[in-house]
Amino acid sequence: MRLAGKRVLVTGASQGIGAAAASRYAERGAHVLLVARSAEGLKRQVERITEFGGSAEAITADLANADEIRSLGESVEAPDVLVNNAGIGRWLFLDDTSPDELQQMTAVPYQAALLLTRAFLGDMRERGSGWIVNVNSPVSRLPIPGATGYASARWALRGLTASLRLDLRGTGVGISEVVPGKVSSQYFENNPGAEERIPRIAKLIPTVTPDRVADAMVAAVEKEKAEIHLPWQLKAFELSGRIFPGLTSYLTWKTGTHR
């Protein structure tokens, strides 16, 4: 899909991967709608984009709130590209996680992507064009110890992507899943203790920058790719989990967090 002149909606766009992706889409000539809770953060990103001549607007919304997602779907025209990037969640053992926090982890990213995609999907199918990008985590393939709620939500997002891919075949609407390894974003600053729970074996996978992930998110749409893993070491690790599931699971547990 050519991005010039298209409307791209990016969630979680006030910082990190979402902000970098919004800039990249704007550089390709798209009009970008940035969605997040932080009005101040969105304002900064819109200013950055307009400074280099890009086209962007901010939409403040809490995607953990189903009513706000409904309002967003009713007030905004269905974009040509929907990027479900918003995601939250700490890495905790299940019985160390409060019920409220578990519900919050489920609300974003999974429920937010589910409901927002539903809000725009009918119009996309009716016009016979559109693309959806779901940004996921490696734990949607290879769970790690001590991150049960977070991993569960990410597996649900993976299931949504795979199911939609079948439903959308032949409609003119496509879907991609972008799965980066550890990213040098604000996630680990916002979630103290998470970085220490990365299994030692996974630390062999190089860290990627938000800009590199943003490039992959653009490539997913332009090249209409079903799935992108980065860096390549993550893809190799993911393949090992398919070929040698028992060994990979054991090594992840052995080098991971224990009580």
> If strands are numbered along the chain, what order do they take across the biggest sheet?
3-2-1-4-5-6-7
The proportion of residues in beta strands is 15-25%
CATH class: Alpha Beta
Structural class: alpha/beta
CATH architecture: 3-Layer(aba) Sandwich
> Oligomerization state of this entry?
single chain
Spell the H/E element sequence. EHEHEHEHEHEHHEHH
Q: Got a strand count?
A: 7
What is the CATH fold-level name? Rossmann fold
Domain tally: 1
Morphology: globular
What is the overall number of helices?
A: 9
Helix amount, in percent? Answer: 40-55%
Alpha carbon gap, first and last residue:
48 Å
Integer average pLDDT: 96
What name goes with the CATH superfamily? Answer: NAD(P)-binding Rossmann-like Domain
Largest sheet: 7 strands, parallel
Task: Report on this structure.
The chain is an alpha/beta fold. The protein has a single domain (7-254), classed as Rossmann fold (3-Layer(aba) Sandwich). The protein is 47% helix and 15% strand. The chain has helices spanning 16-27, 39-51, 66-75, 99-127, 148-167, 187-190, 210-222, 232-243, 245-254, and strands at 7-11, 31-36, 55-60, 81-84, 130-135, 173-180, 227-230. The N and C termini lie far apart (48 Å). The model has no long low-confidence stretch (mean pLDDT 96). Belongs to the short-chain dehydrogenases/reductases (SDR) family. Keywords: Oxidoreductase. InterPro entries: KR_dom, NAD(P)-bd_dom_sf, SDR_fam.
